[in-house]
Design goal:
It is built from 10 helices and no strands. By secondary structure, the chain is mostly helical.
Length: 173
């Protein structure tokens, strides 16, 4: 990346950060307008597409958000922004009732980010929405056992993992 391109990317990132810092989650229209202006200038930038999708998502316009998330993912996100896009897109699909698509997004995301606790939580919500309550609870128990350290809990982690395995087996019968 040349110096001019790097400076343009840095300026774009700073502009996006400024727009997001000023957002009011209770009144997203100004944020959406500002992001759409950036989108007009950078129509194929995956980070811009992701942020526009997120703004629509926050505003409760999940149908519109889903399209922006799809374009962002196709555009080549990476790192933490990719992880967040997977999470938000998968959650949006769940809200739209597209549970199997949501589960596919979370499966892909969990392969790429196996240690992401947030992805695990939202995947569990999708499992629950899809009528797989046992697998949802199993996932939450595994997250608890893998990520929470408390003296009174640590001694029971093998039992927690065993119960998670049992619950997961109930959904596969």
């Amino acid at each position: 990346m040349g110096a001019g391109r790097a400076a343009e990317e840095a300026a774009l990132e700073a502009e996006l950060d400024q727009i997001l810092a000023a957002r009011n989650r209770e009144a997203m229209e100004p944020t959406i307008r500002a992001l759409l202006d950036v989108d007009r200038r950078f129509p194929e930038n995956p980070r811009v597409l992701y942020e526009v999708g997120g703004a629509y998502d926050t505003a409760g316009e999940e149908d519109t958000a889903a399209g922006f998330y799809e374009r962002a993912l196709a555009g080549g996100l990476d790192g933490d922004v990719l992880r967040r896009c997977y999470l938000q897109y998968g959650s949006t699909l769940r809200i739209l009732g597209r549970v199997e698509e949501s589960l596919a997004v979370f499966a892909r995301a969990r392969r790429e980010y196996p240690d992401s606790v947030a992805l695990g939580v939202f995947e569990a919500l999708t499992l629950h929405a899809g009528g797989r309550a046992d697998s949802a609870l199993a996932g939450m128990l595994e997250l608890l056992a893998d990520n929470v350290s408390a003296a009174e809990l640590n001694r029971y982690k093998p039992a927690i993992r065993g119960n998670a395995g049992y619950l997961r087996s109930l959904d596969s019968e």
